[in-house]
Design a protein that fits this description.
Blueprint (H helix, E strand, L loop, with lengths): L6 E2 L1 H9 L32 E3 L2 E4 L2 E5 L6 E6 L2 E2 L6 E4 L5 E2 L3 E5 L3 E9 L3 E9 L5 E9 L3 E3 L2 E6 L7 E6 L8 H5 L2 E5 L5 E2 L4 E7 L4 E5 L14 E4 L4 E7 L3 E3 L3 E10 L13 E4 L10 E4 L19 H13 L3 E6 L3 E10 L2 E6 L1 H10 L7 E2 L10 E3 L2 H7 L8 E6 L4 H16 L4 E4 L6 E2 L8 E2 L5 E2 L1 E2 L1 H18 L5 E4 L3 H4 L4 E5 L9 H4 L8 H6 L17 E4 L13 H12 L5 E2 L6 H14 L7 E6 L8 E2 L4 E10 L12 E10 L5 E6 L10 E4 L8 E2 L2 E6 L3 E10 L3
Helix pairs in contact: 6-7
């Protein structure tokens, strides 16, 4: 035990708070610092090291060529496709700048830096670029006026190569307060812009535009020192595919140097890992139950309180956690312990056998109160005043000795805290503590950048009209997650990290991304959520056009997409008609190759569907590799109704001509057929002519019954917003 862990009487606790609280070891830890080094190379199945050839950066098949003037990408090639229709531009007053020679060089084993300067009439411009080991480009643009300099335009222009879908994922700037539920959901945009409109969300913490193969992501810490008409910050013209970021768009006088930081990513951010379709996600509670799940989220059962507590340094029965972790590791499962980087619990008040117990980290309490970003008081159950008659502990281990026979429920004081260095250190220390217990992977909740409105350069600052604009801790989040990834992967190169959404510059540091959870009743507009008060077809009203879900197709992100359903009513409980509601959700999502964390729905339906997939075979073998063809690329299996979508998995045969032998001719498909409309009736799906012969087998995998083929077609009767899963096996008669 460290010397700041001890048992106190209340008088001693009061004296402790009256004096300066001693800084604990967690506040200054250096775990994972190697992740910040330009020499860091990720172990295991992570990203390959960056390569630099002149102005061309290569990583995992992606090729990015930098401009010799602006250091912006000239080309960004993914799978032989250029993300850009033409070279991006830096526009300043429409005038040409006199650029110097760009300097681009490898720094260390796995980082690239670049710098270039330019001269205008009244100011100098400098661009600095750093490319981190995850491929994220950190771009700093600095304007230095020689004297009071007039400028009327400073913009970044990205002409995107989008011949088909124009997809947008954007999180718009929040108002001058932290929000949740409906207020937060109104700021999130998942769009398939089919109408050619101009999309103007204003300032965004996260903005991504692309199609189902690739995209371009841009993040900014905020609009400090921007001089732009509110609402003109980000403009995406879906007809032309041009994304414009306006930093200055009216006459402005600059009197001192200003720097604008951006984070750029070409998506996919990574190579999709092998056999990811065979991964199955579940939850581990306080038990040794066997499970078929390969990835287990360790929920909060190990924490020192039955109510929600966000402090993984406070364990209840740590040896029990260690034994459960050993049990799961022996079975080959990945452990993902839960962690949340924006919430910090510093005080717990409980009662035990008539006595009040207080568990407290005095340094964290002081730090959290000093740096909390919520304008209101303590979050959760609130313990703003310490009870005078309490027995005080500053160590969970000591409190557990006093009452180790049951897990108590009590009040918890938790703050939303700004990402100052010591707070990040506390979070990293929490992860190290769980690693020491055998929980070497993690699931990170709320990995979108923290927002701060406190006055200051890393907080709220007024714009030209006096409106307070927030700061987003993107730089700080990246620093923390780079350290965490180094800590986790250096400990175990095969350990797994899953992040709950977040933009590409953060997502690139995770192995899969979680979406969903925000489909909860209270997160939706009343005119949508109240249409389905019993839960029937809930997701049909929430999601609408199935093409909107293309935004979350895994291929264009480069990390598997995991959905957490939220089929919950206004009372917070799962809808009574959860089966129909769950199948509605599946009718949409089976078309996008999702994985699932089955909670808050009829989980039996997800388990049954996934069992069919796994029995079909979701792992590559020596005989075949598995491929997924989405409904918009399906040319083989034609539906008679445009609202009946057909995607499929295919076993593609592997054959080595050097070995010889008979070339196998079998074909095997798993058809996913979704009726995404309220009409019911019979629909036909046409089979490829070349596989129709006497050996053709067509099986309904939900019922196990054979399906008749007549005139080269199968006929199905699918209920509204329901689906069929049909296995087709035959010979290739070409």
């Amino acid at each position: 035990m460290k010397n700041y862990f001890f048992l106190l009487s209340f008088a001693a606790a009061a004296a402790l708070f009256a004096a300066e609280v001693k800084k604990p070891d967690w506040a200054t830890n250096t775990y994972g610092m190697e992740g910040l080094s330009p020499d860091f190379v990720e172990p295991g199945y992570g990203l390959k090291p960056l390569q630099l050839f002149g102005r061309v950066i290569m990583q995992d098949g992606k090729r990015t060529e930098l401009s010799s003037k602006t250091l912006l990408p000239v080309q960004a090639v993914v799978k032989s496709k250029n993300v850009f229709a033409s070279a991006p531009e830096l526009i300043i007053d429409g005038a040409a700048l006199e650029y110097g020679k760009a300097k681009i060089a490898k720094k260390g084993k796995n980082s690239i830096t670049g710098t270039v300067s330019a001269k205008a009439k009244d100011f100098a411009l400098k661009a600095d670029l750093t490319v981190d080991f995850d491929g994220t480009m950190v771009y700093d643009l600095t304007l230095t006026p020689e004297k009071a300099a007039k400028i009327s335009r400073l913009s970044l222009k990205f002409p995107l190569n989008l011949p088909d879908d124009k997809l947008v994922y954007a999180c718009a700037e929040l108002p001058n307060r932290l929000v949740s539920g409906l207020d937060a959901e109104r700021k999130r945009h998942f769009l398939n812009l089919k109408d050619g409109r101009v999309f103007k969300p204003g300032n965004c913490t996260i903005f991504w535009a692309g199609n189902t193969n690739y995209g371009w992501s841009i993040l900014s810490p905020g609009v400090h020192n921007w001089h732009v008409k509110e609402g003109d910050e980000y403009i995406f013209d879906s007809k032309t595919g041009v994304l414009t970021v306006n930093i200055i768009n009216y006459k402005t006088v600059l009197e001192k140097p200003v720097t604008y930081r951006f984070f750029f990513n070409v998506t996919p951010v990574r190579r999709m890992p092998s056999d990811w379709r065979a991964w199955r996600y579940g939850t581990r509670y306080n038990n040794f139950n066997p499970t078929d799940n390969s990835h287990l989220i360790y929920w909060q059962f190990w924490r020192a309180n039955r109510t929600e507590c966000h402090n993984n340094l406070w364990h209840w029965q740590p040896e029990m956690v260690r034994k459960i972790a050993e049990f799961d590791k022996k079975a080959g499962r990945k452990i993902l312990h839960y962690t949340n980087p924006i919430m910090y619990s510093h005080t717990i008040e409980t009662e035990y056998k008539g006595k009040k117990l207080l568990l407290i980290d005095p340094y964290l309490r002081e730090l959290a109160n000093k740096h909390k970003v919520l304008p209101q008081s303590t979050y959760l159950n609130q313990v703003p005043v310490l009870p005078k008659d309490a027995t005080v502990f500053t160590s969970a281990a000591e409190r557990n000795k006093a009452q180790n026979d049951e897990l108590l429920k009590g009040k918890v004081a938790t703050e939303f805290v700004a990402q100052v260095p010591e707070i990040r250190n506390h979070h990293i220390a929490q992860i190290k503590a769980m690693i020491d217990l055998g929980c070497d992977g993690l699931y990170v909740d709320c990995c979108g950048p923290t927002i701060d409105f406190r006055p200051g350069p890393q907080g709220g600052m007024p714009d030209d009209r006096g409106k307070l604009r927030p700061y987003y801790y993107i730089t700080e989040f990246r620093e923390m997650f780079k350290r965490i990834r180094a800590l986790v992967r250096n400990n175990n190169p095969e350990a797994f990290m899953m992040g709950h959404c977040g933009g590409a510059p953060v997502m690139s540091l995770f192995d899969s991304r979680l979406i969903g959870e925000n489909e909860f009743y209270w997160y939706k507009e009343p005119d949508v959520r109240d249409i389905s008060q019993d839960g029937k077809y809930y997701y049909a009203y929430i999601w609408g056009d199935i093409d909107n879900l293309k935004v979350n197709f895994a291929r264009q992100w480069g990390v598997p997409t995991v959905l957490l359903p939220e089929l919950r009513a206004r009372d917070g409980k799962v809808f009574k008609e959860a089966t129909i509601g769950t199948r509605t959700m599946l009718s949409y999502t089976i078309q996008f190759d999702y994985s699932y964390w089955p909670l808050w729905c009829d989980t039996r339906e997800i388990i049954k569907f996934d069992a069919i997939r796994q029995k079909f075979g979701m792992k590559d073998t020596t005989d075949y590799i598995i491929d997924f063809v989405p409904y918009w690329e399906n040319k083989l299996f034609k539906s008679s109704d445009e609202n009946v979508k057909v995607g499929y998995y295919e076993h593609i045969q592997q054959f080595d001509p050097d070995i010889g032998g008979k070339i196998p001719r079998w074909k095997r498909y798993l058809l996913l057929i979704s009726n995404v409309q309220f009409s019911e009736g019979k629909f036909t799906v046409e089979l490829p002519e070349k596989i129709i012969d006497s050996k053709l087998k067509v099986i309904d995998r939900q019922s196990g019954k054979a399906v008749e083929v007549k005139d080269g077609k199968i006929t199905l009767d699918i209920a509204p917003y329901d689906f069929a899963v049909i296995e087709v096996t035959g010979n290739d008669n070409d």
